[in-house]
Design goal:
Layout: H1 3-12, H2 20-26, H3 29-36, H4 42-48, E1 57-60, E2 65-70, E3 76-81, H5 87-100, E4 111-117, E5 120-126, H6 133-138, H7 148-168, E6 173-174, E7 183-185, E8 191-193, E9 200-201, E10 209-210, H8 222-227, E11 229-230, H9 232-248, H10 264-273, H11 291-304, H12 315-323, H13 353-356
Antiparallel strand pairs: 1-2, 2-3, 3-5, 4-5, 6-9, 7-8, 10-11
């Protein structure tokens, strides 16, 4: 083999997960651990978790249980243990190991290492002190701790984490499952994006791929649900939903405050059009909110959840908007709802081309795409208006 051919094959190897040989290589956690120098002996993890005692259990996902542990040097860790009986979990687990091997960012959960011991496969993460955003916002009595300053910092931190994944990481990564439950909050209230089991590596020469639909009801972009069309703009849509949930204190998939609104996004849009945008704000924020900042963030959330993906800003634009003092923003069009087709919208007055187009936009496709596995329209009724039937782990069943 010539040197040039060998170099080319090594260059494209990270993107060839569909071939059997490369999949086998990519799934080898032992190899990843050695390459990244992040190997943990099994005995160390047994001791740290008190032999994976049920009192140390933090939760369980489609892959298996997660345990809290403490190393001899005092560091607290979270150990994700692959269930032997989970086939889909195995794919998610190994996918997470591959994608996080070189990811390092303040707003992305840090993977400390790996362990392979016989049939046991484990991922070791930094332990994040507070609960997930989902629990803090919807399922606990700690909601009052989330004043406006903290909510705004969470919005900004998640935006920076997504920008890193989409544009600045070693390989471009589309998360595919951005939601409140996958955002962890540390002891300094810094948000960290977690759970990369469904994430996809995105070849640099492509703006989108067609792929199987997998995600969580209430957070998935309409073009992704309807056609399996995945791009960075799908993550932008999910981010917009999280923004609007944070500001309203309401969960999108179970919204029922206004019978005249089709869902949380529709309610926000109607209030915006009526000039009553601050009525969307969580009453718990009344004493801490900065009204101009709240209004701007609601408008950014609406821009991110527009039905036409080309009109959504990319994450770089979002980060810039969040870092500026509130000013003039583009006029958002109607939010997207899975189960309905969007029409290409004429750009509203004052629309900036930089907000809707970028290297990650859906306007053109180049290069080869993955095999198309589109979701049927009948399976994608309005997930933003009411939740579809989902699996026990809250993930939408993968379309075959």
């Amino acid at each position: 083999m010539s040197k040039s051919k060998e170099f080319f094959q090594n260059l494209i190897k990270p993107f060839k997960f569909n071939s059997g040989k490369d999949r086998q290589n990519g799934d080898d956690l032992q190899k990843i651990a050695q390459q990244e120098q992040k190997h943990f002996p099994f005995e160390i993890l047994v001791a740290a978790t008190n032999n994976f005692h049920h009192h140390q259990k933090l939760g369980e996902g489609g892959f298996g249980p997660v345990y809290k542990g403490k190393l001899d040097d005092g560091r607290e860790i979270a150990v994700k243990k692959l269930s032997h009986s989970s086939n889909q979990g195995k794919r998610e687990f190994e996918n997470e190991a591959r994608l996080l091997a070189r990811v390092q960012h303040r707003n992305v959960v840090n993977i400390l290492g790996y362990c392979v011991h016989g049939q046991e496969k484990l991922l070791v993460y930094e332990f994040v002190t507070n609960e997930s955003l989902d629990k803090l916002l919807f399922k606990s009595n700690r909601k009052s701790e989330l004043d406006w300053k903290r909510r705004h910092e969470i919005i900004s931190g998640v935006a920076r984490g997504l920008l890193y994944l989409h544009e600045d990481s070693h390989n471009r990564i589309i998360h595919r499952d951005i939601k409140a439950g996958n955002i962890l909050i540390d002891d300094k209230w810094i948000p960290k994006i977690a759970d990369f089991g469904m994430a996809r590596l995105f070849p640099e020469d492509q703006t989108h791929v067609n792929t199987r639909v997998a995600g969580t009801n209430g957070y998935m972009a309409p073009e992704y649900v309807m056609n399996g069309r995945l791009s960075a703009k799908a993550d932008v849509f999910s981010f917009g939903v999280v923004v609007l949930e944070l500001i309203s204190g309401q969960k999108n998939s179970s919204f029922n405050l206004d019978v005249n609104a089709q869902g949380l996004l529709d309610w926000a849009y109607k209030l915006y059009k009526k000039g009553k945008i601050l009525e969307f704000m969580d009453p718990a924020l009344a004493s801490s909110a900065v009204p101009e900042q709240v209004a701007a963030c609601i408008q950014i959330g609406l821009l991110c959840t527009q039905g036409d993906p080309q009109l959504r800003p990319d994450m770089r634009r979002v980060v810039i908007l969040l870092s500026k003092r509130p000013g003039s923003l583009e006029e958002p069009t109607r939010p997207g709802v899975p189960g309905t087709r969007y029409r290409r919208s004429r750009r509203p007055p004052g629309f900036s081309s930089s907000a809707g187009t970028s290297g990650l936009s859906d306007s053109h496709s180049s290069g080869s795409t993955f095999n198309t596995n589109t979701a049927s329209a009948s399976a994608s009724t309005s997930a933003l208006a009411s939740p579809l039937r989902s699996d026990p782990h809250g993930k939408r069943p993968v379309q075959s």
